[in-house]
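Chain A, query sequence.
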Amino acid sequence: MKILILASGPSARKIDFDLLPADVQIMGVNGTVHWAPRLDYWFTLDRCSKNKMRFQNRRQGVRYFAALPAGIHVPPGVTRLNRVSLTGRNGAFPTPATARRGTPEWWFWWWSATPTLSEVPGTIHTGNSAWGALQLAVQLGYREIYLAGVDGTQDRRVEGGRPNNLSHLPLLFISALPQLERLGARVINLSMNSRVECFEKIEFEKAFNLEKVA
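Chain A, predicted structure.
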């Protein structure tokens, strides 16, 4: 089974949804729900007010998932997933004592990032919504996984606004490599300028054997 994990980095603009094969499912995260012409799944780890509004204005035909902290309400119609969040205060590596402020390792701690894929069904390790979406896709049985808009930069999102510091993303995705290999899962990054360098990068048209339409 094939799936495209869609985030809002500017490289996502290069995806031609009209040419995307119909057998490729799409899992969008956060603000992608406002502009992606087709979604099969939507996922978030973010408890922001915008996502709370998205819960209340769901798109028909899209399966919604959220891994939010205990005590944060998830309405009917949104599948709640268990959230595993390890921070430096609880002994997870790294901590501010072992990482200089502002480094990727420090941001890893700051965002309570939890390395490796959760292989417990219905449980997601925290750190970033695209990271959580990868875990969910693997748990749902997808083994051919494409990333788009997972740029890892602070450039403006497709829907507007800028993300917070994402320099920890490469550390998260690298931590998944042994599990992905063991599970027979292949991940292809369609964002050629992405700072997530651990996966093979292939341009959209080439990845799907398409001729670009002028």
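Residues 47 and 68 are 6 Å apart (CA to CA). The mean pLDDT is 92.
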